[in-house]
Amino acid sequence: MKKAYAVIIRNGLILLVRRQGMPVWDLPGGELLPNENERDGMQRLIKELLSFDSKVEDLIGIYTKEYHDEEITYVYKVQETVSQSKMESHEYVAFNFFDLQNLPLNVFPDRLRQIKDYKTGRYPVRLRLKENRWLFKIKTFIKEKRK
């Protein structure tokens, strides 16, 4: 499964979003279609999720999980094609711009790492994110029980 997320900067602030029922802030993005190009998919997701046109600029990183090699996450720097675009979303219950040096405490942990990689300016990054072994085993157990 491929996913793509966007780092969108406006006036030095980063856009973070929250989904329905999720108490954590996240980068905008989500799952790509099966045979979709990552850059095209990123543009499609921004258009569908936030209702504005964008230009995908730089690849910040490609991330995999320690126990999930089939799950690949692409993070891109994305620019609005029209400055100060109006945003509307049926997917997100909240979206806001935050200072890069003063992010909220409840940001999704993987995204914190990806934002940190963006801030260093040394990208693209290829990284395997560590996952707690016991958490992985619990998730696997739950999936097996649901079947």
Automatic annotation (TrEMBL):
The keyword Repeat does not apply. Its cofactor is Mg(2+). The keyword rRNA processing does not apply. PROSITE patterns: NUDIX. InterPro entries: NUDIX_hydrolase-like_dom_sf (IPR015797), NUDIX_hydrolase_dom (IPR000086). It comes from the Bacteria. Keywords: Hydrolase. Residues 1-119 form the Nudix hydrolase domain. It holds the Pfam family NUDIX. This is NUDIX domain-containing protein. SUPFAM superfamilies: Nudix.
